[in-house]
Amino acid sequence: MKKYQLLILISGLLIFSSCSKHIYVNYQTESANTGKVVLKPSKPTERTFVTINDNLIVDKKNVKSVTINNVPDGNFNIHYTSDNSWYKDKLDVQIPLKMENGKEMTKLVEVPPYSTGYWIYMGGMAVLPWLVLLTL
User: Fold this and answer.
1) Going by DSSP bridges, is the β-strand pair 74-82/92-99 parallel, antiparallel, or unpaired?
2) pTM for this structure?
């Protein structure tokens, strides 16, 4: 009986662990006279899309940060979105960028807080397994 309880607890921990990654992409193959842009969300985002001037850079990934290498000099429009319905507000950020002299730039992306429905769901998911275990 104790083995089953331990197995359920470990399985729950694995299911709720984060699978977000630090993403590294190249904007172009030419690396001479180019800079780097690092996008850092305030917390990891799920099903994330990033575009630069309407060119898709990141497609539906779980993200801790996005590093875009080989960005040439010029003006760019970065669009950072997440297809996550649990946020209070939609995550849809436009970031204007002027790259010059091969700089390294870091841009912070403010992620909205989770909605009340998310917290109710997570609380239920945390309590429900314990209720099942106690009734066995």
Assistant:
1) antiparallel
2) 0.75
